[in-house]
Amino acid sequence: MPIQISSKVMRLKPSASIAAKQRVTDLEAKGWKIYDFCVGEPDFATPKTIVDAAIAAMRRGDTHYTGSSGILALREAVAQKLSHDNHVTYHPSEIVVANGAKQLIYELFAATLEPGNEVIVPAPYWVSYPDIVALNGGTPIVVSCGPEDNFKLTAASLESAITDKTRWVIINSPSNPTGAVYHQDEWQALIDVLVSHPHVSILTDEIYEHIIYENAQNITPVALDERLKERCVIVNGMSKAYAMTGWRLGFAAGPQHVMQAITKLLGQSTTCACSFAQSAAVEALYGSPEPVEEMLRAYTKRRSIMVDGLNRIEGICCTKPQGAFYAFPDVRAILGSKSPDGSTLTTDLDLVNYLIEEASVATMDGTSYGLPGFLRLSFATSQSMIAEGLEAMTLAIAKLDRPLAQA
Ligand SMILES: Cc1ncc(COP(=O)(O)O)c(C=O)c1O
User: Fold this and answer.
1) What value does the mean pLDDT of the chain take?
2) What is the pTM of this model?
3) What structural domains and CATH numbers belong to the chain?
4) Beta-bridge partners for 95
């Protein structure tokens, strides 16, 4: 008899971004030149000082299991980073290190959810949140936050989504996919709601913290209101800021008993994060900020090319992201158009398919992020790739027969 797959895994959708990456790889293997705007990771190499620290760790023999919560030196480095960058105080015993922010989010919900508990997920959301919640028995409560709210959860929407089954609300700032960053007054309004609902905890995913533009600022809510500390978990990691996606290293800070529960789960699953990747992360956190700043300067230029180029395409409207490396243009005015082969582009996914077939431009559909009518384009790629890809996209969109209402 064939091995039976569990119903919870049968219900699970494959990660949309991983599926898109596979599609690009398959087309490239067939010889297509793809303008790939699906990538969710920096295109830069990990800074040399960080790589050297990993090599040194291997040479000195740091190649064994570590404690499940991570080496003390790294948890101390995270504590000093949280104090220096985020103005919050955490003891190393309130910090856990694991194989990426994704694993920590997974373990956090595994450690705290009971069947039927609700988790408020503002949409558009990072694709994995609803699935991770559901896999751990929770019910994702998706709250739509459209362009009229600058893609951010408002106090009123939070208040009306809370029930007595709510356990968590997830805030991701800067956001994947929109680049939205919560300002102090917006945080304060959310905090005021949370203070009056003590059964609701908050997960703040700050993985794009250092990729932030102009005057925008990363704020962690505990820095605004110490009362939240007992029900806030901060998740962050090395992947995006330090171009370390493949190293698989993230960290979380929160109440000690929650961190201990996560550590217990890690001890029965992955044991620990890679030992020498942890040493490399210590170097990243204490080392010079220059490599991160240099990458930020490049993202800043690419952001302008991407956003200005998108806004020049008729029917596309794109706000400037304040953080992360994604543009999230509104393409609703294009939907309903007919492509040269006579088929109608009804949904954002139809447009994604048209762009890849007609222009070799790979984008992500807003529907996968919980907000139909939008696309996500990553600008973590070269300026020339962005310029050429936008040119191909402009030509492809010009070929569409637009709906009468737009003509
Ligand atoms: C919002 C968000 N959170 C978490 C992650 C996962 O990061 P890590 O590589 O640390 O697992 C990603 C990766 O794309 C992300 O976009």
Assistant:
1) 95
2) 0.95
3) 7-32+291-400 (3.90.1150.10), 50-286 (3.40.640.10)
4) 253
